Structures are given as C-alpha cells and as structure tokens.
Amino acid sequence: MNQPPSDLPDIYSKDSSQHQTLSDLNLTPPEAPPEGDQFDSLAPDKNSSVRRTFERAYIILLVIGFSIGAVLAVGVVATLKRWGLTEVPARQEQGE
Residue 20 needs a FRET pair 20 to 30 A away by CA distance; which of 32, 43, 54, 79 works? Predict the structure, then answer.
C-alpha cells in the first residue's frame, strides 16, 4: 500500500548491482555562466550608490541598536538600585 515507486533503486537491498559506484556518478563540474552576466549591465556608479545606501542603512541600524541598548541598560541599573539589589547584604552573625 505504501510502497516506493519501482523505478527507484532499493538502497537497503544487499544486492550490490543496484548501487552506483563513485565512478558511475556524473562528477563533472557545471559549465561556467556566459560572459554577459546579468550584473554586468549595471553601471559602476549605480553599484557604488547602492553600496553607499546599504552602508548608510547599516550604520543607522547600528546607531539605533546601540541607543536602544544604552537606554535599556540604564533602565535595568535604575530598577536594580530602586529594588535595593545593588547593595551589599548585611552580615549575619552565626550564633553558638
């Protein structure tokens, strides 16, 4: 009922004639793409403007991330101080 198609080799069989050897496999490298690549049509100034745009966006995201991190860090420290979690605990004497 739930059987694989018959045109596929049985990889679990003990019969070695169904298995391919390494020399039977097609291991030739793929052909190189044609010289007229799709990105060659972009002008160099277009590439540099796109690069500058991504660099600017990356720097903006870094600044935003550091700003949010600094605000959160100050908030955590203020909360810890308010709850008294930054103070040294009082020493308790051990009674005999």
Answer: 32
Instruction: Tell me the whole-structure pTM to 2 decimals.
Output: 0.46
Q: What's the CA gap between 32 and 41, in Å, rounded?
A: 18
* Distance of alpha carbon 54 from alpha carbon 62, whole angstroms: 12
Spell out the per-residue pLDDT of the chain, length 96, in tens.
Answer: 566 566 666 666 666 555 566 666 666 776 766 666 566 566 667 778 889 999 999 999 999 999 999 999 999 999 999 999 888 888 888 865
Beta strands in 1-96 (DSSP E): none
Q: What are phi and psi of 52, to 5 degrees?
A: -65, -40
Return the half-sphere exposure (C-beta side, CA atoms, 13 A cut-off) of residue 78.
6
